[in-house]
Amino acid sequence: TKEAITYLQRLVKEHPKIRMVALAHVALGDYFWSTKSLYYAKTNYERVVNQHSRSELVGFALYRLAWVYAALSEWDKAKRSLAEAARSTLGPVKRRAEKDAFYFESRPSI
Question: Among 6, 24, 53, 54, which one has the highest count of C-beta atoms within 10 angstroms of its own C-beta?
């Protein structure tokens, strides 16, 4: 796994404009989420949204980003990200975002 992460980080750094970089950021975000490195997960998902806005992965990254914000107790950001994910994607991610919105709405705003 460390080799794969190193490769993905190198790909992102050396070829920031190629199409596969958005997927690399999602993979890195997922890895960092699984290791509880929330800052790095957040950074990678945000890069998909902010630097690859035309990618078909934006909705998925927004959905994952919502859960990172929730884990950080940033509920307002989590709710906005989840709502945006529901608006910007179709299929299973949209349905999941709409379903999870109920849980997010029950959380306090700060």
Answer: 24
Predicted confidence band at 27 (pLDDT cuts at 50, 70, 90)?
very high
pTM for this prediction: 0.89
Residue 84 near residue 93 (C-beta atoms within 8 A): no
Cα separation of 8 and 15, whole Å? Answer: 10
Cα gap 23→55, rounded to integer Å: 9
Q: How far is the C-alpha of 103 from the C-alpha of 98, rounded, in Å? A: 10
pLDDT for 73-94, tens place per residue?
Answer: 998 899 999 999 988 877 888 8
Q: What three-state secondary structure class fits 91?
A: helix
Tokens read off for 44: 């990678």
CA atoms within 13 A of residue 37's CA, in its CB half-sphere: 11
Residue 47 confidence (pLDDT) above 70: yes
Rounded Cα gap, residues 1 and 70, in angstroms:
26
